[in-house]
């Protein structure tokens, strides 16, 4: 943030001649047209926000705050957030996982926490613990029906994010992993503005090798640069399919449709070449001929952390460190953060 004269702070991604976030014309002045912060500034109360002090005080017990971002939905961002949280917890760190994907909270489902609720104590909202040192908070715990759609405008989403930050009692923890929604929307601007005052360490961005995904990741990287959030690195998810032969499904094409031939094929391999059953088959799913995320990172000057293949049996893999090489790279980056 920069000083905006009598108008208060000016976001780094604001338009030229920004009147300042505390100005009476914030979000309404001619200079505000097209600014990504326009709606927030126009609807935000003017003057010092008393909740900011509460956020700072609450976040003082959190050593490191890590954002997990993606340019597009469906790239495995929440899966990676969960894997990262488990990996940190397995290293005996105290970890919090905050799901701020207000309209599409998937963390409770992934971690088997459906049906859990939020309990309030005199210290604040209590996280739901999946491990003794891994607490989780999500709007998914607040929905009476998991199929309910959350149809909220920006200000209401921002209000809940603020409440998560100031009211959740994480206790003294080493890492807070924040699983953000895809894109660069109100939620991202809010979480960045709130966490910057409390000291955000940086963002990890998740993508797939698809060119359409990489286009949006470039925008995400530029967003981070504009708002002053360090990019800790980029992870390429769904980087090919890896599956043992014994776990494959075989079909025999016919005019009337595919016929399941799995039992026949596996028995044939078992009888004639049993050593093949443990062989891992690899297949490219997306066109990576243009270099994928690694080339993009080189061009944009941000770290490339590694690749995660698609692996069968997601539920079993989530809590296991099967992507050890990637996780080591990510954890090395996090351990270099100022303690």
Automatic annotation (TrEMBL):
Binds 3 [4Fe-4S] clusters per homodimer. Contains two stable clusters in the N-termini and one labile, bridging cluster between subunits of the homodimer. InterPro entries: Mrp-like_CS, Mrp/NBP35_ATP-bd, NUBP1/Nbp35, P-loop_NTPase, YlxH/NBP35. Residues 1-10 have a biased composition (Gly residues). [4Fe-4S] cluster binds at residues 18, 32, 35, 41. It is found in: Cytoplasm. GO terms for cellular component: cytosol. Pfam families: ParA. ATP binds at residues 71-78. GO terms for biological process: iron-sulfur cluster assembly. Keywords: 4Fe-4S, ATP-binding, Cytoplasm, Iron, Iron-sulfur, Metal-binding, Nucleotide-binding. Its cofactor is [4Fe-4S] cluster. It comes from the Eukaryota. Residues 1-23 are annotated as: Disordered. GO terms for molecular function: 4 iron, 4 sulfur cluster binding; ATP binding; ATP-dependent FeS chaperone activity; metal ion binding. PANTHER family: CYTOSOLIC FE-S CLUSTER ASSEMBLY FACTOR NBP35, NUCLEOTIDE-BINDING PROTEIN NBP35 YEAST -RELATED. Belongs to the Mrp/NBP35 ATP-binding proteins family. NUBP1/NBP35 subfamily. HAMAP family: Mrp_NBP35, NUBP1. Component of the cytosolic iron-sulfur (Fe-S) protein assembly (CIA) machinery. Required for maturation of extramitochondrial Fe-S proteins. Functions as Fe-S scaffold, mediating the de novo assembly of an Fe-S cluster and its transfer to target apoproteins. Essential for embryo development. Homodimer and homotetramer. Predominantly homodimeric. Although plant and algal NBP35 proteins lack the characteristic CXXC motif in the C-terminus, thought to be required for Fe-S cluster binding, they can bind a [4Fe-4S] cluster in the C-terminus. Also, in this linage, no CFD1 partner protein homolog as found in other eukaryotes can be found. This is Cytosolic Fe-S cluster assembly factor NBP35. It comes from Eleusine coracana subsp. coracana.
